[in-house]
């Protein structure tokens, strides 16, 4: 007989995994969380998700379900009582799914290059990310959450922006979600960060432990590097072709994204997943 209960295979810094945790917690569903080393995936993960081999995977009574947005919908359908995640109205549901797809396909793709671009190219990338978010922001007009008065499906899908975009801005030295450019989204960030399930689950942002080394891709790929200045919040940008990466850096790690101590508060896992590189922790 299949094992009873709910398991989530995840990775602590994943914005996709956190969607599933938020949905389960909103429903009050108890679950076991299994943190994966994505550089060395467990046999269980590969067995449960042999197609994409990615997290999150929800295993419900022994049956695996992959793809975070699909899992969130599944959770809403299976645990019908209590908190409602999907909009009740079919038109509103279709709209929420449309914007979720738009955010995942367009906005995420526009945001991640902010890490790797420099100079004029970076200003252009920031502008493009802002344009995408402005389009998304229209779905917030006159509302507290994308879901209206309550934190709902689309908030779950894009809620990670509230935590990670300010980190991306800080590490990349740019401003994306500003009062001037994206006032509704900025106000929504505050709403999201005040939601209990969000507060319970986001990784900490601890200013004291920033000894992180972040390599935004390899030099060979021409993407340069961001290296923290001592134990501070400041980062020094090394241009793509620079032979001037600090001597202290292990050479083999120049070809990868390296996260050392303090990784948790920076959480640039996304760079790693973008480049499909091994992550050292
Ligand atoms: N569309 C997928 C994306 C999942 C995804 O990209 N997961 C990343 C972590 S955020 C992953 O497992 N990366 C490991 C890999 O690509 O091998 C979803 O929403 O579930």
From TrEMBL:
What's the catalysed reaction? Answer: RX + glutathione = an S-substituted glutathione + a halide anion + H(+)
Provide the alphabetized UniProt keywords.
Transferase
Please give an example of a GO cellular component term from this record. Answer: cytoplasm
User: Any idea where the GST C-terminal domain is?
Assistant: 89-214
Enzyme superclass (EC): transferase
Matching entries from InterPro entries are given as: Glutathione-S-Trfase_C-like, Glutathione-S-Trfase_C_sf, Glutathione_S-Trfase, Glutathione_S-Trfase_N, GST_C, GST_C_Tau, Omega/Tau-like, Thioredoxin-like_sf
Which family does this protein fall into? Belongs to the GST superfamily.
- PANTHER family noted in UniProt: GLUTATHIONE S-TRANSFERASE, GST, SUPERFAMILY, GST DOMAIN CONTAINING (PTHR11260), GLUTATHIONE TRANSFERASE GST 23 (PTHR11260:SF760)
Name it: glutathione transferase
Q: What is the lineage of its organism?
A: Eukaryota, Viridiplantae, Streptophyta, Embryophyta, Tracheophyta
């Amino acid at each position: 007989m299949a094992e009873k209960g709910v398991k989530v295979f995840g990775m602590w810094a994943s914005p996709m995994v956190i969607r599933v945790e938020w949905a389960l917690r909103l429903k009050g569903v108890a679950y076991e969380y299994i943190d994966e080393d994505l550089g060395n995936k467990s046999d269980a993960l590969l067995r449960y998700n042999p197609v994409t081999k990615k997290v999150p995977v929800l295993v419900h009574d022994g049956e695996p379900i992959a793809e975070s947005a699909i899992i969130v919908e599944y959770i809403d359908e299976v645990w019908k009582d209590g908190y409602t995640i999907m909009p009740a109205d079919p038109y509103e549901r279709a709209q929420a799914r449309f914007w979720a797809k738009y955010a995942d396909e367009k906005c995420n793709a526009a945001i991640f290059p902010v890490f790797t671009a420099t100079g004029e190219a970076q200003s252009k990338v920031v502008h493009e990310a802002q344009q995408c978010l402005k389009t998304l922001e229209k779905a917030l007009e006159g509302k507290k959450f994308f879901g209206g008065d309550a934190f709902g499906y689309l908030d779950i899908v894009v809620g990670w922006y509230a935590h990670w975009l300010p980190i991306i801005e800080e590490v990349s030295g740019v401003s994306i979600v500003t009062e001037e450019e994206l006032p509704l989204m900025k106000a929504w960030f505050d709403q999201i960060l005040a939601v209990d399930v969000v507060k319970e689950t986001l990784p900490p942002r601890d200013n004291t432990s920033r000894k992180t080394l972040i390599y935004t891709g390899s030099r060979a790929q021409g993407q340069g590097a961001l290296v923290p200045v001592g134990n501070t919040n400041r980062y020094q940008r090394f241009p793509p072709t620079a032979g001037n990466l600090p001597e202290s850096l292990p050479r083999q790690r120049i070809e990868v994204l390296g996260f050392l101590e303090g990784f948790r508060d920076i959480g640039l896992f996304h760079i790693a997943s973008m480049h499909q590189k091994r992550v050292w922790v």
